[in-house]
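Deliverable D4.2, example record:
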Amino acid sequence: MARAAGPARLSVWRQDKPRRGGRGGGQPSGLDRDRITAVSVRLLDAEGLAKFSMRRLAAELNVTAMSVYWYVDTKDDLLELALDAVYGEMRLPDPTADGVDWREQLRELAAQYRGVLVRHPWVSPLVGRYLNIGPNNVAFSRVVQQVVRRTGLPVHRLTSTISAVFQFVYGYGTLEGHFNTRSAALGMSRDEYFRNSVAQVSESPACAEVLQESRAIMEARGGDTVEEMMERDFTYALDLLIAGIEALVEREG
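Output generated by the structure prediction step:
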């Protein structure tokens, strides 16, 4: 007879695991879940998602892997904890404050989310993998909803609006994070990597015509550094989205 499968994993936030260390009840000394999470974030930033493991984390903590399992059941638990921890880096505006402009608050939320994706390139592959019901993610989601409600769009348009803005930010921040990771892996600055990439493409006959057309667009856009180019593109693209929201508010009445 086949063995019955256990309950599907939902979320580390739905599990009753201890948050403080100490030797009572067999807990390892000097550990708690916050410390384990902080070290997980540091390892993920330094070494990336592919190299992250319970064994590697235990070595960094100078404990056995079994000591870590006292606090979490799986590596997925650690990744979900780390994901929520970096969401806590975002400075969230107060959508209930008097005289605030939803446009500026939406820009601030978009910039904060982009910053998390760029600083922590391992975040984007994890978004959507878990329930993401940790306190920091819930706080972020709530503020996003409150700000978008203040646009004046009808309620049945809010989820589409949130998707348009924050899926754009997700894509932009993910690509920017990949760009930074690749340039660092090659031992180049972002500007050096960009110039090297343009030089490589210039040597390809198949890309010559497209590159020539792109060069005129790039020159018209302006920006002497990768940072300037990325900031200008991000800001203008976000302005386009906000202008679209304003137009739809007017159209929807």
